[in-house]
Amino acid sequence: MPTLEQARRWYAADDPVHGFDHVLRVYRMAERLARAEGADLETVLAAVLLHDAQDSRAGRGEQEAEKRGNHHLRSAEFAAEVLSAEGWPAERIAAVQHCIQAHRFRGDSTAPHTLEAQVLFDADKLDAIGAIGVVRALAFSISAGNPVYYPPSDRFLKTGEIQPGEAHSAYHEYLFKLVKLKDRLFTPAARSLAEQRHALMVAFFEGLAAEMES
Ligand SMILES: [Fe+2]
Ligand SMILES: [Fe+2]
C-alpha cells in the first residue's frame, strides 16, 4: 500500500487545484464514504493517492489542456507501475486502475461501475463544490490565464460552447460543470453531504454574477 509520505512526492506542493492538499481532502472523504458504503478500503485509498499523480496540473494553452484531459489515463498507467513494483496482484491493480480511469467520467468516458470507483468519483467531486470548490475553481481560472467572471454568451448558455473571443471564466465552469455535480454523485452518503456544499457554491457564483452585472 503506498503511504501518504510516498504520495506527497507525486504532487506539486504549490498547486492549489490538484496539489497534495486536494489528495489529502479526497483521502479523508473517500475513507468516510467507503466506510459508510462498505467499499474495499485498500482499493479506494490506493486509488485516491494515485488518481491525479500525472499531468493534472492546470497550465496555459491548448497543449497543456489536452495533456490534462488525459491525466486520468496517465495516472492509471502510473498506478500500475507503482502497485506492481509493490507486488500487488493483477486483479487488484486493475480494480485500482478502473477507479482512476473513471474519476473523470463526463458522459463520453469510462463510467465508474464498481462501488470503489463510485466512492473515488464522489469524494473527488465533493472537493469540487462548496467553499473548497469555489476556491479551486477561482485558482484554476487564474492559473489558466482566464478571468473569474466573464458574461456567458447565449451560445454558451444553450450549447456549453464559447464563441470566438469569449473567455472560459470560473463562472463558465460553474455553469457548465460544477452546478450539475451534485446530481451526478453515486453514493447516498455523498449525495447527502453535497446538498449544503452545493447551496453555498450557488450562492457565491450567483452573487458574483449579480455584482459583476450590477
Ligand atoms: Fe483528476
Ligand atoms: Fe482529483
Explain this structure:
The chain is mainly α. Helices cover 62% and strands 0% of the residues. It has 11 helices and no strands. The chain has helices at residues 4-8, 20-37, 41-50, 62-69, 71-85, 90-101, 115-126, 130-143, 154-159, 170-176, 188-213. α7 packs parallel to α11 and α8 crosses α11. The mean pLDDT is 95. The structure holds fe (ii) ion (2 copies). One fe (ii) ion (FE2) binds next to α2.
List the helices and strands and how they pair.
Layout: H1 4-8, H2 20-37, H3 41-50, H4 62-69, H5 71-85, H6 90-101, H7 115-126, H8 130-143, H9 154-159, H10 170-176, H11 188-213
Helix pairs in contact: 2-3, 2-7, 3-6, 3-7, 5-6, 6-7, 7-11, 8-11
The protein binds fe (ii) ion (2 copies).
Keywords:
214 residues; mainly alpha; single chain; 11 helices
Portion in helices: 55-70%
User: What amount of the residues lies in strands?
Assistant: under 5%
End-to-end span in angstroms?
Answer: 53 Å
Q: Averaged pLDDT, please?
A: 95
Any ligands, ions or cofactors bound here, and which? fe (ii) ion
Alpha-carbon Rg, integer: 17 Å
Number of beta-strand segments? 0
> Element order, helices and strands?
HHHHHHHHHHH
Q: What can be said about the biggest beta sheet?
A: none
What would you call the structural class?
A: mainly alpha
Low-confidence stretches: none
Query: What is the overall silhouette?
Result: globular
In DSSP terms (H or I, runs of 4 or more residues), the helix count works out at 11
